[in-house]
Amino acid sequence: MPTERLSRAWLLIVVLGASGNTQPQNAKNMIVSRADLCLTEGAVEQLPDRRLSVAVPKMRAYVNLETSQYLEARFTYSGPTENQAPLGSGELRRQFGLKLHAQDACNLVYVMWRIAPASEIVVSVKSNPGQHSSSECSNHGYTNIKAAHSAPVPPLTPGQTRTLRAEMNGQALEVFVDNSPVWEGNVGREALSFHGPVGIRSDNARLELELKARRQGAGGQMPACRSGPGESD
Questions:
Q1: What percent of the chain is predicted at pLDDT more than 70?
Q2: For the chain, how many structural domains are there in total?
Q3: DSSP 111-147
Q4: Which of its termini does the chain have fewer beta carbons within 10 Å around, N or C?
Q5: pTM of the entire structure?
Q6: Is 156:134 a contact under the CB 8 Å cutoff?
Q7: Is residue 15 situated within a structural domain?
Q8: Which CATH number covers residue 171?
């Protein structure tokens, strides 16, 4: 290969490596335990087989470890919770989802599997510049993002086990259900104006799940868990 062509090829490799489209060599998937979660609302129980259990109307949590913006949940849906709680808008919805760049209660990206009243994947950016607690932003600042490519998701019935996975590289987001792509698109620059861990959220759904995140760097502990009413998104 001529020297000029070799130099161009090497430059391309360097650019691609720096672009964030390749995973770090030390990236490693890990199973998230209850001890790795910072719970900001509701309850999550640890099951003996490394799974987690959710049986409360509202659950909010984030992974309190250094990870990339990758999260996978293999979950069994067991139906609605005994009691139901409306969203801040007053709507009664049953759903489970993943959180990315969860900086605080007011600024984060959601990948939600809406179970009822309709089965669909909805990606939202919640952005409230200058606000950081739920008392400041409440349920304001949501923008639903239109996918460049999407596919329908099957209805969830009690007893079914599914896998929901999301990965964000820069503004690009990909969502998979059972390893099949269901949502792909650009979440916009606004979503990169805040930074934070990955996490989970549920509303009115009983679940048992195995949660996997991807370690980044040394995989060390994050700052102290930010829990309490003001931290719940």
A1: 85
A2: 1
A3: EEEEEESS-EEEEEEE--TT--SHHHHTT--EEEPPP
A4: N
A5: 0.85
A6: no
A7: no
A8: 2.60.120.560
